[in-house]
Amino acid sequence: MSNKRIINCAITGAIHTPSLSKYLPWKPEDIAQQAIDAANAGAASVHIHARSPEDGRPSADLEIYRQIVEKIREKSDVMLCLTTGGGMGMTIEERTAVVPEFKPELASMNAGSLNFGIFPLAQQLENADFAWEKPFIEGAKDFVFANTLHAMEGMCTIMRDNGTKPELEVYDVGHIYNVKYLISMGVLETPVYLQFITGVLGGIGGTVYDLVNLKQTADRVLGVGTYNWSCNSAGRMEFPMCTTNLFLGGHVRVGLEDNLFISKGVLAKSNAELVEKMVRIMDEFDFEPSTPEEAKAMLAIKR
Asked: What per-residue confidence (pLDDT) applies to 132?
């Protein structure tokens, strides 16, 4: 088994809000610069969300994405993974608008619906910097992140037609069965790329037992050799879960989207700092971070 592993870095996401960490990037130039710095630290792929430059609110504005994408591409050969998470009421075309517009190597494709319980974070927002933050987080208690089979087929088709590989976000065991269905319908080509997202309230837990459950299910349902996979976990289990996944043969994802802390009670000052910690852990066990070109070969990305 190769000792090369892909480090993915999720730069800002749409979960944490500016008041939760002063180091969370939300202006376009800061998102782009942190992505470049993460790549220089060892990330082969950066997962990008856009935010309003006025108040840090999650945004689907293509012009904001353009500022981020162009700056990263000017300075780095890191693989881009653009989100298609979208918002409530958005069409398939709206959710995937970044794909035909920017033709990234990767784009996230959420492999099923789930409750997305980030509402406990609201307890930390009594004195939020922006009025939208606390209601946004509290609203998650009555929110279902909808990803219907119809929507998934449509998004995978758009990605296939634009030469973008779907990064399949797997939040629970049932999502692996959805991936099998999409393969059978011909809208996904093997080897598929799974991102095991653990520790989100409403999805599978963030323990080693849950990770092994996902891996064994993927082996049984999809078949060994038909997929590549990465893992991340929300909050304090980010590094324990990523380290475990190295020994299972998988890749890793770190970043301020998933975890704001570098150690107990200490905020990470940047995404690069989280990547650097992952590189140190890998080095202790004789693993090496792959380059973007090596990562493309591993994932069968032809672009």
From this structure: 97
Confidence label for 57 from pLDDT (cuts 50, 70 and 90): very high
| pLDDT recorded at residue 302 | 83
End-to-end alpha carbon distance in the chain? 25
State the CB neighbour count (10 A cutoff) for residue 32.
24
pLDDT at 1 over 60: no
Full DSSP string of the chain: ---EEPEEEE-S-SSS-GGG-TT---SHHHHHHHHHHHHHHT-SEEEE-EE-TTT--EE--HHHHHHHHHHHHHH--PEEEE-----TT--HHHHTTHHHHH--SEEEEE-S-EE---GGGGGG-TT-SSTTHHHHHHGGGG-EE---HHHHHHHHHHHHHTT-EEEEEE-SHHHHHHHHHHHHTTSS-SSEEEEEEE--BTB--SSHHHHHHHHHHHHHHT-TTSEEEEEEESGGGHHHHHHHHHHHT-EEEESTTT--EEETTEE-S-HHHHHHHHHHHHHHTT-EEPPHHHHHHHTT---
pLDDT in tens, 107-128: 999 999 999 999 999 999 999 9
> Could you give the CA distance from residue 105 to residue 300 in angstroms, rounded to a whole number?
11
Q: Which residues contact 147 (CB under 8 A, 6 or more apart)?
A: 110, 111, 112, 113
Mean pLDDT of the chain: 96
2-37 tens-digit pLDDT: 899 999 999 999 999 999 999 999 999 999 999 999
